From TrEMBL:
InterPro entries: DNA_primase_Znf_CHC2, DUF7146, Phage_T7_Gp4_N, TOPRIM_DnaG/twinkle, TOPRIM_dom. Gene3D superfamilies: 3.40.1360.10, Zinc finger, CHC2-type domain. GO terms for molecular function: DNA binding; helicase activity; nucleotidyltransferase activity; zinc ion binding. Pfam families: DUF7146, Toprim_3, Zn_Ribbon_Prim. GO terms for biological process: DNA replication, synthesis of primer. Keywords: DNA replication, DNA-directed RNA polymerase, Nucleotidyltransferase, Primosome, Transcription, Transferase. Coiled coil: none annotated. It comes from Legionella steelei. Residues 235-316 form the Toprim domain. It comes from the Bacteria. One of its GO terms (cellular component) is primosome complex. This is TraI.
Length: 329
């Protein structure tokens, strides 16, 4: 079925967009990953018109592989969907075509990780979590959250304070900073990665990317996962993208909250059957990524038989933490 891939060459941006990947991700700039949700680790460079991409966590590949990763499609299903967009009348059966079509460009590291690399990831995550301290009154995490209008008497287990965490950029070590560490868990409540917010004095640290996800224990393990700040009560949970927005909703409503880290994380979240009612606190971002993700999530949750309520701040550019600071909620 090489002719489908050949026909798509030079058209991958349009094909991917038609199949649900927002154009916001397809601009050949470093930014959020549509698969894992990492804030500044993805680039769609579309070399030679082949839809090439690279993510520090998910790996790399051609356009067909990006579709597979995003929708969790088998190779044949992805080919069939591309064919439909291109107007090609064909039906590819579910066979493994990987021996005929390589979905990863040779210039990049393959998506698969060997045992040594996976162990290194796991050890780094566990070591960082073991160094994390319980948040206490007056420490940098407590001061930061209070500056965001979020005073908590007791902090959830999923949040911690690291007093001296290394920050690296592409050139190497930049320095050490206090950090808010958040435990990201999958649908089985197993740790898959850690979210880091590097801090200054009652604010985020003055670094290019103060919020970062560590590489997950397994590729794509963070898909569907969340920072489970407070456990559901009476089958109810509030979902928000950021930690601060989720905690702002908790302060305002006293309801249990989870943070999904990004719009992609919001769309892909996997909820246990025990959750019957979901309130989605949407960021009113100018790109509409949050709104689009929440709409897709709501459609899926309703189809699963759950009750869903979507709420959004009235002004573009606002989230619910902004409203809390303005005492509007």
């Amino acid at each position: 079925m090489n002719f489908i891939i050949d026909r798509a060459q030079g058209q991958w941006s349009e094909v991917l967009s038609a199949l649900g990947i927002d154009k916001h991700y397809l601009k050949n700039k470093h930014g959020a990953c549509p698969v894992c949700g990492g804030k500044d680790r993805f680039r769609f460079d579309d070399k030679e018109g082949k839809g090439t991409f690279y993510c520090n966590q998910c790996g790399s590949g051609y356009g067909i592989k990006l579709l597979q990763n995003y929708h969790q499609w088998r190779f044949a299903e992805a080919l069939n969907q591309v064919a439909k967009v291109l107007g090609i009348q064909t039906q590819v059966k579910n066979h493994n075509f990987n021996h005929r079509i390589n979905s990863s460009p040779p210039i990049y590291k393959p998506n698969g990780l060997n045992t040594k690399e996976l162990k290194k990831r796991r050890d780094s995550l566990i070591y960082t979590w073991l160094q994390t301290q319980i948040v206490s009154s007056g420490d940098p995490v407590d001061c930061y959250l209070k500056s965001r209008g979020i005073p908590l008497k007791e902090y959830p287990y999923s949040l911690g304070h690291h007093p001296h965490l290394a920050y690296y950029d592409e050139k190497g070590l930049v320095g050490h900073f206090p950090a808010m560490i958040a435990l990201v868990r999958d649908q089985n409540n197993k740790m898959v990665t850690l979210h880091r917010t590097y801090l200054g004095k009652s604010c985020k640290a003055d670094v290019p990317t103060p919020k970062k996800l560590m590489p997950s224990m397994q590729p794509r393990a963070s898909v569907g996962a969340a920072i489970k700040l407070y456990q559901p009560v009476n089958g109810i949970i509030v979902l928000a993208e950021g930690i601060e927005t989720a905690l702002a909703m908790h302060v305002a409503t006293e309801l249990p909250v989870w943070a999904t880290i990004s719009a992609v994380g919001l769309e892909k979240i996997i909820l246990p059957p025990s959750i019957k009612e979901v309130i989605i606190a949407i960021d009113n971002d100018e790109s509409h990524c949050g709104q689009n993700a929440s709409s897709k999530l709501a459609t899926r949750l309703l189809a699963e038989g759950r009750r869903v309520k979507r709420i959004i701040p009235p002004t573009s550019g606002q989230d619910f933490n902004d409203l809390l600071l303005e005492k509007s909620i």
